[in-house]
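Sharing in case it's useful to others searching the archive later.

Someone asked me privately for the predicted structure of Acetyl-CoA C-acyltransferase, so I'm posting the question and my answer publicly. Question first, with the sequence:
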Amino acid sequence: MNEAYVVEAVRTATGRRKGALAETHPIDLGAQVLNALAARTGIDPAALDDVVMGCVTQGGEQAFAFGRNCVLASDYPVTVPATTVDRQCGSSQQAVQFATQAVMSGTQDMVVAAGVESMTRVPMFSNLKLYEDAGIGTGSMSPMMINRFGVPSFSQFAGAQKIAENYGFSREDLDAFAVESHKKAAAAIEAGMFKDEIVPVKTGDGMFDTDEGVRPGTTVEILGGLNPIEEGGVLTAGNASQMSDGSAGLLIANERAIKAHGLTPIARIAHVSVSAGDPIIMLEEPIRATRRALEKSGMSLDDIDIYEVNEAFASIPMAWLDALNADPAKLNVRGGAIALGHPLGASGARLMTTMIHALRDRGEKYGLQTMCEGGGTANVTIIEAL
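And my answer, the predicted structure tokens:
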């Protein structure tokens, strides 16, 4: 079977909701990442077999063959196909995994895996509201689902709160974790660590090239002044991921494509897997998914140099560290979604892009990425930097 390699990995800087990227159409965000992948690798885009695009809220400007629309807005020829994937927060990590499976099988040789989300222009859950406003249907939970699980809806907030309670995390614990995320991200920006991975985006004010959600001066005391999301709970806007706008993408190829196009890979994809568990608590599945991935790959956490565990809420990576007895010094070494933002459909590719560049910059070998996802699923990808 073929190996799957990453030839290039890029992202936009992440914009705050209603921030620097608010006037940029999400299709154009995706197109600029596609163009950057071609420009940086020197490939002829006509040679691409497919584009797999992650996007969660597929409504409004992100509706109607969204991945294909990104291709049509780019400099790629119209002969390049594309599709759109929704595995909730793991959508573009799943895009990478689908691309990996395609090139490993040999049915395709070179595929772009990417993701986009504009949470400014297409707010979270706005695709559900369209149906409510039209008076059509009863929402995303069917009678059979409600009867099976005994709840009228699945809530990520309730799941994250329950995880904090189960692991004994206090409000101060979560806020302290959030402060560290901002500190790591701010240090990475100050040191220019994101320069190689970020594609500058044209905006009305010029070129946007720096993540704008990072708060270098925040403290536990400042975060302690925020109101909880739910009364009596420990979750706040300060210890949860930021709603954001952004895009990211990777060029995935097998040996045949690398030889044919004279490419130099920057990483090898060593393992891909996905698992699913309890849809009610929902966000704890990365723990079981990681154990399963390590068993299937014959590796241990001691073999892994850095981990990227998405900071949807601080309680998620904290529980992952606790349950797996993992080294916190290896976690989200350049900050996570609490500081850098969480543009839903783009985050999987964003985390992987940052992880690959961090591994190479640090002279390290293996990185493991996992994300909690709506419905109780979790992807795991293990990368070997080259």
